[in-house]
Amino acid sequence: MLRERVKSIELELHSYCPKQCDFCPNSLLERNEKVVYTEERVIDEIIRAVPMLPNLRRMAFHRYNEPFIHRGQTAKINAIIAKIKEVHRGVEFWAASNLSFLSEGNNFLRDSQLHFMMVRRYEEKDPSFEAMVQFVDVHSVYTVSPGNHILFLHDGKIVYYHDVTVAPFTELYDRGGSLVHLSTRRRTQPCNRITINLGIDYNGNVMPCSNMQSQVPAHEPHILGNLRQSTLLEILGGEPAASFYEATANADFPPACRSCQSKNVIRRFPGRRGWCTCGRSRNLPYCDETHIGNGGPGPWEEDTEL
Ligand code: SF4
User: Fold this and answer.
1) Burial letters for 52-82: b for 16+ Cβ neighbours within 10 Å, e otherwise?
2) What's the CA gap between 53 and 8, in Å, rounded?
3) Which of 193, 230, 276, 304 is the residue whose CA sits 20 to 30 A from 237?
């Protein structure tokens, strides 16, 4: 049953991102002109389905957008978190932000009920680390490398900050083959990501993994269904999901997957995960085992993600 595979959901609550970074499929799309909000019936269907996903552990409120465009979005995220907590107590909530809209009036660092936030500064005009910490009650700061800081806030929320203007990304990948300038390597491993990390686009389309975005032409054939017409369980039990899972688990890759490097590694420590200590993991705050030797993983804990 594919529903039992779902460990993480990315739920996009609107369409807008002010940036068009060249390492993101938004560089191919026009998502910086108008805001289209996710319909309530799509959000309600996700909340309704959550108790039927026994292995769900994480829920994210970003996809290819900037979640915190105004204060109302923080309130909406908090309301969804409250509803999900009523029906499923084992879910961690998180979001990524590009900091474009951080202000005292829109202080999502302080006001959100998330467990974990990943925030990145992409341009000089966005808040620096020093400017950002004025918005939060910082309990302790752990500097892992120039431009990379992990903050532990007083209420237990973790904020990971990365200043891309100081320390650019060292590893980029082609987001399901959509960014051809980053398609430098062939995929060598079968993929088991299908439905483990589900993506829900603002238009209700359900995507099989976090790399795929339904407006990208290369990803359109892999839309599993739409939550305005079907329930999540109907989509997960449908033929598109079953056949895509079967193909990629057997390394019978469609073009979108042929150069995808997501989880294209054999884990050295299966069943366990450690905290990242070099700041370069793609799975922050956890080590993804690609930079072992740069400090090595921090304290280990049982891995419930794989
Ligand atoms: S190989 Fe395909 S299905 Fe797997 S993570 Fe990459 S794009 Fe997604």
Assistant:
1) bbeebebbbbbbbbbbbbeeebbebbbebbe
2) 10
3) 304
Q: Whose CA is nearest to atom 8 of ligand 1?
A: 209
- Sign of the CA dihedral with 67 first, then 205, 248, and 185 last: negative
Q: Which residue has a Cα nearest atom 7 of ligand 1?
A: 176
Atom of ligand 1 nearest to the CA of 194: 3
The per-residue pLDDT for 306 is 40
Exposure of 183 by Cβ count < 10 A (0-12 exposed, 13-18 middle, 19+ buried)?
Answer: middle
At 146-157, the pLDDT tens digits run 777 888 888 788
C-alpha to C-alpha distance for 203 and 29, rounded to whole angstroms: 14
> Which CA distances in Å does 18 have to 96, 122, 160, 256?
14, 11, 21, 26
Q: Which tokens go with 213?
A: 């975005």
Q: 211: Cβ below 6 Å to ligand 1?
A: yes
Q: What's the average model confidence in pLDDT over 30-52? A: 95
Structure-block tokens of residue 154: 């007083």
pLDDT grade for 250, boundaries at 50, 70 and 90: confident
Vertex 249, ends 306 and 269: CA angle to 5°? 30
Q: Which is nearest to 301 in space by CA: 32, 84, 57?
A: 57
